[in-house]
Amino acid sequence: MTRIPTRTHVTTTVNGDPVDFLADPRETLLDCLRDKLGLTGAKEGCGTGDCGACSVQLDGRLVCSCLVLGVEAEGREVKTIEGMAEGNDLHPLQAKFIEHAALQCGICTPGILVATEALLKKNPDPSEEEVRYWLAGNLCRCTGYDKIIRAVLATARDLREGV
Amino acid sequence: MNYHTPASFADASRIAAEATGTTRFLAGGTDVLVQLRADIVTPDDLIDIKHIPGVKAITRNADGSWTLGVAVAGAEMTEHAELMADWPGIVEGMDLIGSTQVQGRATLVGNLCNGSPAADSVPGMIAAGATVTVTGPDGSREVAVEDVPAGPGRTTLARGEVVSAVNIPARGENGGDAYLRFIPRTEMDIAVVGCAVNLTRDGDTITDARVSLGAVAPTVLLVKEAAKALIGTTLDDAALEALAEAASAACNPIDDKRGTIEFRTHVAGVLAKRAAGIAYARAGGEK
After folding, report:
1. Chain B residues touching residue A62 (CB < 8 angstroms)
2. Contact call for B102 and A62, based on CB within 8 A
3. ipTM of the complex
4. CATH class, range A8-83
5. Intervals of CATH 1.10.150.120 along chain A
6. For chain B, which domains are there?
7. Which residues of B137-158 are buried (b: 16+ CB within 10 A; e: fewer)?
């Protein structure tokens, strides 16, 4: 049994890189990513798991990083929006979101991209309905969603056809 | 706040039993972290049970029964084809909770111990006859799921007790279950009424049944009168009417803008009929 003191040394992997930080156990993974590691791509919208702006993958599973404690990341693998592009080469989803103007203010975009990448890995050929249900936990107040859905479906088609 | 990562349920129980302040167990965190952030509950001791061996396991036992670890997330249940084939009602109830992101973390036991009368995964577990193993300072005991909730936000578990496994019976032959809920939207909402039906058939005749209702009383209910209305019938119109009547009669709901007492009471009967129809078809081999 481990009893961890007030500030905990957390060793984890973010986007393939080993990182460590000191966390108060009350701090969320979102706060740790943003404030301790400088990874500000994940956004805080609601802080209660409703909006999805803080979406990351934890051991390959899509989660809200505001509903994960920083100390829970010990020994796990975290993937954030910062790990999506390869250098200056955008991920096909990112490129397609720009092409379709599937964003306006951009606050929700990192979360939606992370969530969508997880969807296409699980289901390369989702229906429109499946995309809408999968993204039901990612709120966007600007676009009305249609452009986002079209960008996701177009990317999925391109990836399937090897474009 | 002290953060603990015990390696066994006995240790988890001891930490909770010896704690003098507010204690919470952490599995998926989709309720605990929301309460923490909103300053509703700030635990002095937070006990993360995810380092205990077996908490992420979905196991089909030799007798066909299932044991689910307490940190198994909804998404992991949905992805488990054999569990889904045996107990679609339990899995579909769990799957209705929250978004994809929430499904990545939320657990059956968290949903149960949060104590909401509207908990979507609880009617399915009750209808299935599921139990939970509870580990306390004096050892372990097995508790029927319907005996865990004590009222909104409360359970019958004593200080120092922690749920250490979910036990689901063997499906057996010619059985089926289903869960339906009413919400005013299509997704991402809390049940106004929920109903789970689990039944077994011999030919066209129902030989055994359990019916559970959510969001129509201070706790999720096991409605024995509703089950009686089904047993011995072929789910004919008279049986369905008797089922609806018994389900509505069991309701003692709140009255709010999401559903009046009259509405919830009526819909409980409607959902019971529909869920029974699905369970009956599944018991007959329909997917």
Report:
1. 100-101, 104
2. no
3. 0.95
4. alpha beta
5. 92-161
6. 2-168 (3.30.465.10), 187-283 (3.30.390.50)
7. eeeeeebebbebbeeeeebebe
